Amino acid sequence: MARHAASARQAALAQELRPEKQGALGRRRFLTYLIAAPTLTLGARWVLDGSEANAQVPGIPSPSVSEFFDLGDALKAATLPTSDMLRLNVTEQGRVVLRLPRAEVGQGLTTAMAMLVAEESGARLEDVDVPLEDARPELLFNQFTGASVAVRELYTPVRMIAAGAAPGWSARPPTTSASRPTT
Questions:
Q1: CATH number for the domain that contains residue 122
Q2: Predicted local confidence at residue 118, as pLDDT
Q3: Once rounded to an integer, what is the mean pLDDT over residues 116-144?
Q4: Residue span of the structural domain in which 154 resides
Q5: 56 in any annotated domain
Q6: Strand-pair partners of 90
Q7: Three-state DSSP state, 178
Q8: Cα–Cα distance between 87 and 143 in angstroms, integer?
Q9: 5, 12, 22, 26 - which has most CB atoms within 10 Å?
């Protein structure tokens, strides 16, 4: 009889601990989380605040790494090896075409690049086209669109390619490219 009562208690306890439906949160589990989360948070804070690893010498400034090198800087550095592989052409009709290896996602990237090309080359803004180019494997990270860094990444390379191509436009064949030859 005692054995039957013990197994009945175990079955009742197991039934109480088991959620009725898949993914349901039982009363005991909810209370466990309710108590465990603040306890672990306070415990971790107490341990980390008291550790010598986080101790700072008073009076010596400790700037964070992001004050010197943030995500935008990392993305810009990743594009440097291929930044001179942009394609800028002049058509027979005198239009300047910068083929942009990016996606336009509402940041005004094509307009900004067209303005840079017009400014550096001396062309009218109306004569500058900036079509989006298909992916090119050789460009690696220089095709990344995101983190609001596209203008920051392309500013110098686009200015250099437009300025380098501008003086010789009248003497060049109409469809020459001002980009680095690919190998």
A1: 3.30.365.10
A2: 93
A3: 89
A4: 71-168
A5: no
A6: 96
A7: coil
A8: 13
A9: 26
